[in-house]
Amino acid sequence: MIEKDLDKFRSITNSLLEAEKKEPVVKPIPAEQLLQVLDLGLEENGIEDEELYLKLQEVVMKTPRTATNQFFNQLFGGRKSKAVLGDLMSVILNNSMYTYKVAGPMVGIEKEILRKICNLIGYGEDADGTIAPGGSMSNFVAMVMARDAFKKDIRFTGVQDKLIVYTSADCHYSIAKNASLMGVGRDQVRFIPTNEKGVMLIDQLEKEIEKDKVDGYSPFFINVTAGTTVMGAFDPVEETAKIAKKHNLWLHVDGAYCGAVIFSNQYKHLVAGAEKADSFSVNAHKMLGTPVTCSIIVAKDKKYLSNSFAADAKYLYQTDGDDYNLGKTSIQCGRRNDALKFWTLWKSLGTEGLRNMVDHQFYLADVARDYIRNNPDYNLYSYDKSISVCFNYKGIPAEKLCTLLYKHAELMVGFGSFQEDEFVRFVTINADNGKEDIINFFKVLEDFVEKNKEELFNLNSINA
Question: Considering the entire predicted model, what is its pTM?
Answer without folding.
Answer: 0.96
